[in-house]
Design a protein that fits this description.
The protein is an all-alpha fold. 60% of the residues lie in helices and 0% in strands.
């Protein structure tokens, strides 16, 4: 009976050890599989970005203008230009000299404000 208990203990310890090793190998296998999937996903995202860039570049007005208009004198600007024109003071309506503030308003710091009336 004592031999039977020892064999049962050895078999159960061996079975638990085998299950533990199997579990650890599955953890590593799934970890590598997940890493491989993440790498493939990143490659697909990079390809998607490249294809979107190529699509935007192919559909741009500059590229379409090169295909549509073969003459060399036609040109589309490559960027946006901001032009600021000074406005002459005589064209401004209602531009008057600011009123001189009195001593009380200077001390208190109250400035006139517009109020809406119904």
């Amino acid at each position: 009976m004592r031999l039977y208990a020892i064999l049962l203990l050895i078999i159960s310890i061996t079975a638990l050890s085998i299950l533990y090793v199997y579990q650890q190998t599955e953890i590593f296998r799934l970890g590598y599989l997940g890493h491989k999937k993440i790498t493939e996903l990143q490659e697909l995202v990079d390809k998607n970005i490249i294809l979107r860039y190529n699509l935007k570049k192919s559909a741009s007005l500059i590229n379409l203008a090169d295909k549509v208009c073969d003459s060399s004198d036609y040109e589309i600007p490559l960027g946006y230009w901001l032009v600021r024109l000074p406005i002459p003071k005589e064209n401004l309506k209602g531009a008057s000299q600011p009123e001189k503030a009195n001593i009380v308003s200077r001390l208190i710091g109250i400035k006139r404000q517009a109020e809406a009336r119904p």
